[in-house]
Amino acid sequence: MKKTMFSTVLISALAVPFTAGAEEHEPNWQMTWQDEFEGNQLDTSKWRIDIGNGFYDGDEWIEGWGNNELQSYQEDNVRVEDGKLILEAREESVGDDKGEYDYTSGKVLTDESFSQAYGRFEASMKLPEGQGYWPAFWMMPQDDIYGGWAASGEIDIMENRGSETDKVGAAIHYGDLWPQNTYSEEVYQFPEGQSTTDFNEYAIEWEPGEIRWYVNDELYSTKTEWGTKYGEYPAPFDQEFHMILNLAVGGWYGGEPDETTEFPGQVEVDYVRVYEDADAEHPPPGEWIDPDENGEPEDDGPPPVDETKNWEEIGENLIEDGTFDTTTEFGDENDSLVWNVFNMADHDPNGGTADFSIVDNKLQATVNQVGWNWYHIQLMQDVSVPAGTYKLEFDMRSDEERTIRTELTGAGYRQIEFEVNEEMETYETYIDVAQPGDYSLLFGLGKGVDDPELDVPYDMHIDNVRLVEVGIDGESTGPEDPNDSDNWVESGDNLIEDGTFDTTTEFGDENDGLVWNVFNMGNYEQYAGAADFSIVNNELKATVNQEGWEWWHIQFMQDVMVPEGIYKIGFDMRSEEERDVRVELTGSGTGIHTFDVGNDMQSYETYVNVVNPGEFTLMFGLGRDGDDPELDVPYDIHLDNVRIVEVEKGNDEGQEEDVDEPVSGQPSHPGKGAPFKEDEDGNLYLETGNGEKISIPAGKGNSHAENPGRGNKPDHAGRGNNN
């Protein structure tokens, strides 16, 4: 029921499979608590009735329960009749020492009588229909072992927007203290003919390391990944939680009531039942961890660049339209353009928001609401950056003197603060980019937690944004591009196993890795790329049946351990349709290399500088990039003699030239690779467009940042407390 904003921090302990939660036996459910709501009054030995419109967070009064809720909970709105618990929302005026309210409603909880860790928790409920109703069945930690909300977690068994009678939501909240918390959620869609306005049973089954959600015994969500900054997994969901039933009115989740909303509205509860697995042996809760006392200071990124050295610009400006001469509109987190914007108020009405426009060839941001953190208002641009040292420069002024933040998101450098005043001034800083990649230059224009509150609205102006590589006395600090030299000779063995396809008879996939592995996005999205793979005459044959719309939709790959050094990647290839093929040593930071492949079998090669050794994946991307021509399918691609071999500089004299000189690949600027995501345990996964999560063996994909800035779109946001 309580909500969260978009998190700006990674959770410190993402989940790995937890053995206790993977028991392969049918639970022996034994009832531990129940209320069938018999008689004519609420059993106060089981339930406490909550009252009011908010709570104290220390000395601060948080109105609206942190969610902009409009109702004041009253004892008179809770009753038992005809074997049902009734929570009734009414349109009526009441007041207390904190304010006046136009609505009343009911809320009950078991915090003074019952709590339990693990088990099955279920309730049969009938929900009201109407814009602005927000009924919920949820759980909060009994003792907040890992700290305040949401570091100790929250479990939402069911919540609903009264305007949507065909679906309910489920969620867990976790991570860090507000506002650095995060959440995971799921939606259940009722079959045709069923509705929230009928009695339905909502339940979870909770074991260490796994929580499962059910509607009418239909499993629709399973969560195993979460964490808290203050405990070890499976914390925070390893402690006792109590139950809450309530009917809110208004709030950001479902919006305010309107002229169509009929009052009174009721939640009817037929029963609430709790069970435990009598055969299970659950571990005790973990211990609270102080992250500031672990002897490991937080990683703020690489040390600052020494600005006293003789830095000279040696590259071109990587920012597109940094002078705002051609920009006429802005993209957002759902539709990226050259310059993109994000307003937290689009997801939380209390969040920061600004209007963006171009005035006299300058970016103007009119701040209308400051929010409560710097990332609430963002201006950003995606940019591909090779490794090296860069100067970030821009002109800025603000009607109100204030602090702004910049960040090259994903590059790992320290967040930089600038003090901006009413005069247009030029600001600059230097950034070390250790690994090439697709990043996002982000200007954070929201109010920092410790920043003073300023009167709104006021305007900010930005112009002449530049990101340019610099070198000491004109010499680049980035790693050498080995493709700039043609004097390499092989000095090692081939690291690829069966690059000649003499022994390969079958292929692994994202769920079962073998020597050579394949991936087809078409297995997960209807119109995405797909190919059939086979061995024909000791060559790899890929029959492209559907090209998709990204080059990584079709992949052929092998995991390979690569020590530090310079390597030649070589292979023979032909295609029945002339086309581009991308090759990436995924995870090594050596970029994507593009080859123009024709009808005749030819040898292709490129050189890569592996600065940090590791287990990577040599990946051939056989899908269609968005800029590639659309080809008639099906057609065949043949691959042979795949090699990764360490090389060293040869002598200028006595070198034999290749009889048939191979075709060198053109390394494009380092790109994102396949947009797989990596958790802190090195496990990679892919989220498809329809929300499906695909597990990927270690080594697949690429961990470059995929999302612009920090502007991921949360479905809901906010703050709350059950006290």
UniProtKB/TrEMBL annotation:
Residues 1-22 form the signal peptide. Residues 49-280 form the GH16 domain. Belongs to the glycosyl hydrolase 16 family. Residues 289-301 have a biased composition (Acidic residues). Keywords: Signal. It comes from Alkalicoccus saliphilus. This is GH16 domain-containing protein. GO terms for molecular function: hydrolase activity, hydrolyzing O-glycosyl compounds. GO terms for biological process: carbohydrate metabolic process. It comes from the Bacteria. InterPro entries: Beta-glucanase-like, ConA-like_dom_sf, Galactose-bd-like_sf, Glycosyl_Hydrlase_16. Residues 279-309, 650-723 are annotated as: Disordered. PROSITE patterns: GH16_2. Residues 712-723 have a biased composition (Basic and acidic residues).
